[in-house]
Amino acid sequence: MLRKVAKSPAQIYPKAFQESPTRLQVEVTTRCNMNCSMCVKYAPESDIAETDLSLEDFKKLGPALEHCEKLVLNGIGEPLLHPDLAAMASFARERDQDLQNYFDFVWTPGRSMKREKLFDLIREMRADAEAQDIWINLRNLAEWGQRIQTKEYKQLEEVYARSKALAVELGVELRLPPLMAENELRCSFVEEGTAFITSKGEVSPCQFLWHSCTCYLDGSEKLLRQKQFGNIASGEISEIWKGSEFAGFRSEVLEYEYPYCANCPMGPCDDITGRSNEFEYDCLGGGGPCGHCPWAMGGPQCLM
Known about the structure:
about 300 residues; alpha/beta; TIM Barrel; 4-stranded mixed sheet; two-stranded antiparallel ribbon; 11 helices; 6 strands
C-alpha cells in the first residue's frame, strides 16, 4: 500500500536550509541625518542605539558572501553615514555581490466584492464555523466588506493604477503592498533564507524581530522584542545559521501552523501586546510570534 508522504519545510523551501544564508540584510549603521517621528528608532522602549558595524566584523561575512544571492547594506540608519561603506562595498564586490539591485517592486491589485455577496458569504461561514465549534471574527469581516466600498479605497485603487502605468512608462520595477491583508500568512524572509545582521553584529531572522521597540498593530499598542541567535563578532555566520536554535526556528515558521491573529475575536491578547509577559508560545502552541506579523500579512514591503 502506497502512502503520500508530506514534504518537509526543507524540501519545500530549500533556500532556508542551505549551508549559509541565501540573502543577507546588513545594517551597517543606525546613525541617521534625519529625525523622523515615525521611525522605530524613536519609538517608546526602542533599544536602537547609534552604532556602526565595524569593517572588521563585516569582513567576517566573507565566506557567506561567496554563496549569497543578495546582499543589502541597509537597516534603521542611513548607510552613507558609515565611514567604511565604500570599503564594505568593494569587499562585497570582490565576492561577486551586486549592490545595485536594492529595490524589487511588484504591483499587486486590490480585490473587490459586492457587499451583499460578502454578507451571504459571512452567513455561510458563520454557520459552518458554529457547526465545527470554531470562532470567527465577523466584525472584522464585515468591516472588510465596508472598507472596499469606501471612497478612500476607490481612490487608492486609482493611485495604484496610475503608479503602475508610470512605472511602466519610466521602466521602473514597482512593489506596492496589497490594499487588504493577504488571506494566507507567508514569510518571504525565512522562505528565501535571509539573515538580518544588526549594527552590533547580532543575527536575527526577519525584519519584524530585528529590533525591540513599541509599535501599533490594528490600533493596539504592541511591544516588540528582538530575537537573535548569535553575533558575528564572536561566531561564524554559517555556524549560527546552521545551529539547532536558528534552524529549528526557521523550520517551525515554515510549517505555517500559527494563528492569524488579526482574525481572532479574542484579540488583542497578551501574546500580541507583549505587555504582560514576554512571548513564549502562541495560542496554538507555536514558538514563533508570526501570527501577528504585518510583513506576513503582505503589509510592509520595505527590505523584502
